[in-house]
C-alpha cells in the first residue's frame, strides 16, 4: 500500500491525520495496546503476514475499530472473506477516489455505534442500580397493568411484610386481595377502582399474613398514561405502618389519661366538659364541675416520700371513682388536684349530694407502710349555666370556690358565689395589659435549642414573652397569657413578639450563624382569627430575616379546630419558606393520619413526658414512640424540658437530634443569649 498516496487522499478529503505505520504483527499489537485508534487502513500483503491476519489481531484487541483493506489486486474470494471477517470495506490502490468518503462513513458509523453502546451500558447500569435499590428498600414497590389489573412488578420487600415471596405473587400462586383483611377488602377494591378514574390512590388497610399476624399498610399509587393518554399502569409504594399505628394508639392513651391513676387527664376532661356543655345547651339542662384539692397532701410527700404520696393518690382516685355515676367523669389535673364532671343534674343540691358522698369516701384512713394516713379534700363547685357557660369559666369558678373551702377550714364544700368572682381584679389586669403594650413593658427572653448529636451546639432559640410590670416585677405568663387570649390582646401582643424576634434573629444570623433559627409561638387567636400569613410575611420583610430562619410553633388542639382550613393556612405559611412545628406534642390528638396532611417540619415533645423518662417506663415509651413517629414522617423532633444528663443520654440513644431545657440554659434576655452564642455551645 502506498502510504504517501493514502495520506494525500485523506488530506485532500479534509482530514487532519495523526497516524502510525506498522509492518509486523508485534508492532501492530504494540500500537493497538497503547491507545484507541479511529480507523485501520491496511494493505493485504505484508512482510510476515497478510491482511486477514491483521484483521484478526484488530478484532481481538479493539473489536469495534473500523478496518479498511487496500490492495493492488486480490481475488474476489479473498475480498469476500475479508468482509465476512469484519472488514468494513475493500479498495483498490489504483482507485482511491472513494477513500475519503469511505473513511468519513466508517468514522460516523463508529462514533454512532460507540455512543449507542455507551447509552446502552448506562441504561444497563441504571437498571442494575434501580433493581439493587428496589431490592434493599423496606417499602414495597408494585406495578399493575391496566385495565387487566395484572401484577407485573413487585420488589422483594413484599416477603418481609406479607410473608409471601414476590415471585409467588407474580406467578399468580397467591391472590394479594385475599390477604387483605376481610373488613378492609371492599374498601380497598373501591379505592383501586376510584384510582383508575381519579389518577391516584392513598389508603390504609390491614393484611393478614399466612402466620396470622395482622399488619397495617399505607398504600400510595399513581396512574401511568401512554403517549395517547390511555391508562396503562398503576405504580405504587406500600409501607408497613404497623409500628406507627401502635405508637399512635399508645400516644392517644398517654395523651388522654393520667399515667399514675389511670384517670382522664386535663385534655380529656376539657373534651368531655365541652361535650357536656353542648348537650346541656341542647336540652336546656344543668350540670356541675367540682374542683377537689387534697388537704395537707404536701405533708405526706415531705414526710414519707413521693412513692407514698403516689400510692395515696391512687387509692383516693379509686375511692372517688366508685362514688360517682357512670355518666360522671373523675379526672386528675396533676399534683393533688382532681376535677369531677357531673352532667345532667336537676338542681345544685344534686351536686352537693355527690360531693358529700365523695367526702365520705375520702374519710377512712389509707394504710401505707403500716401508717394510717388521713387525707381529706376541699371541694369547690360551679354550676352551668349559672356560674359560667364555657369550659375555662366553669373551671376557674370551681377553682375559686375550692380556695374558699380551704379558707373555711378544709374538708368542706363551697359553691361559687357571684360576689367571690374577682372581676374587678381581672378588669384591672386587662387595663394594665393595654398599658403594657402601649408602654412597651414586655420583653423577650430566649431559651437555646441545641444539637444533641453535635457537641450541644446552639442551632436556635425559642422566643418567650415576659411582662416586666413597673410595680410587680416580672409577671408570670401563666397570669397574663390566658387573659390576653380571652380579651383578644394576644393578637397585637403576638405581632409584637414576632416583630422583635425577627429583628433579633436577623442580628444573630448576620453576626454568628446564617442558619440560626428563631422559634415563635403562634396563639389560637392569631392562627384562626387573624391574617397570620400576611402578618408573618410583613414582619419578615420588615426585619430582613430569611424565612428559613423563622420557626412558627402551633399546638395540636389549634390545628384540629378546622382541619381543611388548617391545611390551607399551613400551606400558605410553608410557601413563605418558614418552618412549622407542633408544640407540646403528645398532649393532644397525636394523630398520625392528621399529621401526614399537615406540612410540619418539627414535633416538640412536651416536657411532661421528658421529665420522668429516667424512672417512668411509660414516659420513656411515649418519648420513644414520638421519636419513631417523627422518623417515619421524616421530620425532626425537639425534646423540651431536658434537665439531666440521664434524660439527655436516653434521648440521644433514641436518635433525638434537637433538645431544649434547663440543662442547656434557661430563658434569658437577648444580651445573655448573645453571650451564649459567642461561647458557641450551651
Automatic annotation (TrEMBL):
| Catalysed reaction equations from the record | 3',3'-c-di-GMP + H2O = 5'-phosphoguanylyl(3'->5')guanosine + H(+)
Residues that the record marks as modified (4-aspartylphosphate) are 43
Q: Matching CDD domains, A to Z?
A: EAL (cd01948), GGDEF (cd01949), PAS (cd00130), REC (cd00156)
> What PROSITE patterns does the record tag this protein with?
EAL, GGDEF, PAC, PAS, RESPONSE_REGULATORY
Residue ranges annotated for the EAL domain, each copy included: 426-681
> GO molecular function terms here?
cyclic-guanylate-specific phosphodiesterase activity; nucleotide binding; transferase activity
Q: Which residues form the PAC domain?
A: 201-253
Residue intervals of the Response regulatory domain: 1-108
Task: Report the protein name in the record.
Answer: Response regulator receiver modulated diguanylate cyclase/phosphodiesterase with PAS/PAC sensor
GGDEF domain: residues covered: 285-418
Q: Which organism is it from?
A: Methyloversatilis universalis (strain ATCC BAA-1314 / DSM 25237 / JCM 13912 / CCUG 52030 / FAM5)
How this chain sits in the membrane, per its record, is: Multi-pass membrane protein
Q: Which InterPro entries match?
A: Biofilm_reg_signaling, CheY-like_superfamily, EAL_dom, EAL_sf, GGDEF_dom, Nucleotide_cyclase, PAC, PAS
Q: Where in the cell is it found?
A: Cell inner membrane
For the biological process aspect of GO, one term held by this record is: phosphorelay signal transduction system
Against PANTHER family, the record matches this protein to: BIOFILM ARCHITECTURE MAINTENANCE PROTEIN MBAA, DIGUANYLATE CYCLASE DGCP
Which residues belong to any copy of the PAS domain? 126-199
Q: Which UniProt keywords apply?
A: Cell inner membrane, Cell membrane, Membrane, Nucleotide-binding, Phosphoprotein, Repeat, Transferase, Transmembrane, Transmembrane helix
GO CC term (a single one): plasma membrane
By its UniProt entry, which SUPFAM superfamilies does this protein fall under? Answer: CheY-like (SSF52172), EAL domain-like (SSF141868), Nucleotide cyclase (SSF55073), PYP-like sensor domain (PAS domain) (SSF55785)
Amino acid at each position: 500500500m502506498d502510504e504517501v498516496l493514502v495520506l494525500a487522499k485523506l488530506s485532500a478529503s479534509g482530514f487532519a491525520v495523526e497516524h502510525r505505520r506498522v509492518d509486523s504483527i508485534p508492532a501492530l499489537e504494540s500500537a493497538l495496546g497503547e491507545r484507541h485508534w479511529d480507523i485501520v487502513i491496511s494493505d493485504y500483503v505484508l512482510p510476515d503476514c497478510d491482511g486477514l491476519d491483521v484483521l484478526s489481531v484488530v478484532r481481538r484487541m479493539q473489536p469495534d475499530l473500523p478496518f479498511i483493506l487496500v490492495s493492488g489486486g486480490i481475488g474476489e474470494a479473498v475480498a469476500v472473506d475479508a468482509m465476512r471477517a469484519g472488514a468494513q470495506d475493500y479498495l483498490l490502490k489504483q482507485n482511491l477516489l472513494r477513500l475519503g468518503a469511505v473513511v468519513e462513513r466508517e468514522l460516523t458509523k463508529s462514533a454512532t455505534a460507540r455512543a449507542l453502546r455507551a447509552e446502552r451500558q448506562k441504561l444497563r447500569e441504571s437498571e442494575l442500580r434501580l433493581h439493587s435499590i428496589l431490592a434493599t428498600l423496606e417499602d414495597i414497590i408494585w406495578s399493575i397493568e391496566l385495565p387487566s389489573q395484572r401484577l407485573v412488578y413487585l420488589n422483594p420487600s413484599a416477603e418481609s411484610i406479607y410473608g409471601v415471596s414476590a415471585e409467588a405473587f407474580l406467578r399468580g400462586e397467591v391472590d394479594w386481595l385475599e390477604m387483605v383483611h376481610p373488613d378492609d377488602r371492599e374498601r380497598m377494591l373501591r379505592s383501586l377502582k376510584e384510582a383508575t378514574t381519579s389518577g391516584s390512590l392513598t389508603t390504609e388497610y390491614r393484611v393478614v399474613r399466612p402466620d396470622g399476624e395482622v399488619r397495617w399498610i399505607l398504600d400510595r399509587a399513581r396512574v401511568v398514561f401512554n403517549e395517547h393518554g390511555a391508562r396503562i399502569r398503576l405504580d405504587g409504594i406500600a409501607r408497613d405502618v404497623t409500628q406507627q399505628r401502635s405508637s399512635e394508639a399508645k400516644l392517644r392513651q398517654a395523651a388522654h389519661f393520667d399515667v399514675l391513676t389511670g384517670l382522664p387527664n386535663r385534655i380529656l376532661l376539657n373534651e368531655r366538659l365541652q361535650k357536656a356543655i353542648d348537650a346541656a345547651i341542647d336540652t336546656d339542662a344543668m350540670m356541675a364541675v367540682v374542683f377537689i384539692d387534697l388537704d395537707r397532701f404536701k405533708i405526706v410527700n415531705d414526710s414519707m416520700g413521693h412513692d407514698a404520696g403516689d400510692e395515696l393518690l391512687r387509692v383516693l382516685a379509686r375511692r372517688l371513682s366508685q362514688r360517682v355515676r357512670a355518666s360522671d367523669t373523675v379526672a386528675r389535673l396533676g399534683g393533688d388536684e382532681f376535677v369531677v364532671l357531673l352532667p345532667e343534674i336537676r338542681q345544685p343540691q344534686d351536686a352537693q349530694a355527690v360531693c358529700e358522698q365523695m367526702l365520705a369516701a375520702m374519710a377512712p384512713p389509707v394504710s401505707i407502710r403500716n401508717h394510717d394516713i388521713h387525707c381529706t379534700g376541699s371541694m369547690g363547685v360551679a354550676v352551668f349555666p349559672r356560674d359560667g357557660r364555657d369550659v375555662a369559666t366553669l373551671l376557674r369558678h370551681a377553682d375559686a370556690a375550692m380556695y374558699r373551702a380551704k379558707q373555711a377550714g378544709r374538708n368542706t364544700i363551697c359553691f361559687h358565689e357571684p360576689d367571690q368572682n374577682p372581676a374587678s381584679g381581672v378588669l384591672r389586669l386587662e387595663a394594665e395589659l393595654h398599658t403594657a403594650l402601649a408602654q412597651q413593658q414586655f420583653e423577650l427572653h430566649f431559651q437555646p435549642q441545641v444539637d444533641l448529636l453535635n457537641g450541644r451546639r446552639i442551632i436556635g432559640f425559642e422566643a418567650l414573652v415576659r411582662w416586666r410590670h413597673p410595680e410587680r416585677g416580672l409577671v408570670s405568663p401563666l397570669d397574663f397569657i390566658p387573659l390576653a387570649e380571652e380579651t383578644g390582646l394576644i393578637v397585637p401582643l403576638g405581632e409584637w413578639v414576632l416583630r422583635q424576634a425577627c429583628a433579633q434573629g436577623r442580628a444573630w444570623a448576620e453576626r454568628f450563624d446564617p442558619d440560626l433559627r428563631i422559634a415563635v409561638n403562634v396563639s389560637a387567636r392569631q392562627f384562626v382569627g387573624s391574617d397570620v400569613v400576611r402578618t408573618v410575611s410583613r414582619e419578615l420583610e420588615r426585619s430582613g430575616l430569611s424565612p428559613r430562619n423563622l420557626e412558627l410553633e402551633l399546638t395540636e388542639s389549634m390545628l384540629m379546630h378546622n382541619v381543611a382550613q388548617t391545611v390551607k393556612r399551613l400551606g400558605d405559611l410553608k410557601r413563605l419558606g418558614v418552618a412549622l412545628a407542633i408544640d407540646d406534642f403528645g398532649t393532644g390528638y397525636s394523630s398520625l393520619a392528621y399529621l401526614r396532611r399537615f406540612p410540619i417540619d418539627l414535633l416538640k415533645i412536651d416536657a411532661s413526658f421528658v421529665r420522668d423518662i429516667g424512672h417512668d417506663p411509660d414516659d420513656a415509651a411515649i418519648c420513644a414512640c414520638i421519636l419513631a413517629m417523627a422518623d417515619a414522617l421524616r421530620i425532626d423532633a425537639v425534646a423540651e424540658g431536658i434537665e439531666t444528663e440521664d434524660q439527655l443520654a436516653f434521648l440521644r440513644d433514641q436518635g433525638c437530634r434537637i433538645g431544649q431545657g434547663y440543662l442547656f440554659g434557661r430563658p434569658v434576655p437577648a444580651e445573655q443569649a448573645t453571650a451564649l452564642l459567642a461561647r458557641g455551645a450551651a
